[in-house]
Design brief:
CATH architecture of chain B: 3-Layer(aba) Sandwich
Number of strands of chain B: 8
Distance between the termini of chain A: 5 Å
Number of domains of chain A: 1
Number of helices of chain A: 2
Structural class of chain B: alpha/beta
Distance between the termini of chain B: 46 Å
Shape of chain A: globular
Strand content of chain A: 15-25%
Oligomer: heterodimer
CATH class of chain A: Alpha Beta
CATH superfamily of chain B: Thiamin diphosphate (ThDP)-binding fold, Pyr/PP domains
Largest sheet of chain A: 2 strands, antiparallel
Radius of gyration of chain A: 11 Å
Helix content of chain A: 10-25%
CATH class of chain B: Alpha Beta
Strand order of the largest sheet of chain A: 1-4
Strand order of the largest sheet of chain B: 3-2-4-5-7-6-8
Largest sheet of chain B: 7 strands, mixed
CATH architecture of chain A: 2-Layer Sandwich
Order of helices and strands of chain B: EHEHEHEHHEHHEHEHHEH
Radius of gyration of chain B: 17 Å
Shape of chain B: globular
Order of helices and strands of chain A: EHEEHE
Helix content of chain B: 25-40%
CATH topology of chain A: Alpha-Beta Plaits
Chain lengths: 70, 248
Amino acid sequence: MVKIRIDRERCKGCEFCVIVCPKKIITMDKQLNSAGYYPAIKIKDKEKDCIACGKCYQMCPEVAIEIWKE
Amino acid sequence: MKKVFSYPESLKKTKFSYCPGCGHGISQRLVAEVIDEFKIREKTIGIAPVGCAVFAYNYWNFDVTEAAHGRPPAVATAIKRVLPDRIVFTYQGDGDLASIGAAEILHAANRGENITVIFVNNAIYGMTGGQMAPTTLLGQKTWTTPWGRKAELSGYPMKISEALGQLDGVHYIERVAVNNPENVLKAKKAIKKAFKNQIANKGFSLVEVLSMCPVGWAVTSVEALQWIEEKLIPVYPLGVIKDKSKST
């Protein structure tokens, strides 16, 4: 079981995590955050597919992603 | 549940002031992670440059000082000589290191100072708004080369790592990129080695990080990753440029 948390307020919407995710569990939100960016969010119900490879974490320039693993 | 990827201790919770898709955030996180892994946070002194990374002292959770434009290697030399038990590193951009600070880096490298240099190369002056840097590619459009850089007018892209590699005082130089997760891991390995060299008193180590500047290059963040792969890496090939521990 893997849990991933994306800090909505840190994200600047560069989409790096979206393109590097091998399981395609991240997408861009339609709602702005307080800084005026469309942040990355997890696709509902797809978090269970996460394999905790950490590619999104490695590529995130804002260090906005944290991953927990059982 | 166990945290497998989390915010490094050596990074403050401050938000970065960088543009979306900038490679500085990744490079600074890698430095913070390496310092955490060596457990040297309490005795590390960083030197921030002038440029986009000028606020690095707001982001790193250890002692960071600021130097005049291009002078971090000189300041690092002084700190390391006065406090030899500290881990001293400079974090510089290409405008800072390759242009105005060319003399400082050349002589610090030639003296073989026992410092670590993280050289972030994005082929442009980012903070001032995207002017031509010495590392700008031929044909690359910037605000000061609106028809592309021409060799007859402004010379060739400066390969500072290769140039420094000729000096006898240099222990280790490697060029890495942060444009995909595999390269980020390689970059971390190189930065780790550069700090390890300093801890073992081996001498001058430099890691050149090819980094994204989507705003300066006038491309989207995702296109910037491709831009590094297609344009920057052919001119600035990745890999170890000099490693004394292997050659002897």
